[in-house]
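Dig into my protein:

:::
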Amino acid sequence: MGFPDQIVRTVELAHSPAKVWAAITTAEGLASWFGNTAEIDLRPGGDMRMTWKEGFAADMRVERVEEPTVFGYTWPINGLPDDDPRRTYVEFTLEPVGSGTRLTVTESGFAQLPADAHAEAFEGNVGGWKSELGELVEYLDAA
């Protein structure tokens, strides 16, 4: 039996695609809902770095930028050693819906992990996306 390879979350936002795009692709936006600090070179191959107050940091690589509809990056898998080359791929897809935006987040690449690492990384990120997308909604609604 194989492991689930991806997490998919969709949220309907009462904000324009341009506003959602800025929240997910700028250092200011990302630091307001996702991490505590952010740096981003918004081009395929560009570097991206997020840090959190808890002492965690993630170095990422921008993989896909199709403004204003698709943004994707790769990042380290939680629970693996810092020098492990395996990454998951996260893709945000924005679709205009009425006066708002349907945002779908897909994170894939979990099937490459052994059972123990898969359980920790997959379940951790399932909960993480639920929490982070809730923070995105709060950030957008407050702005």
Remarks:
- The mean pLDDT is 93.
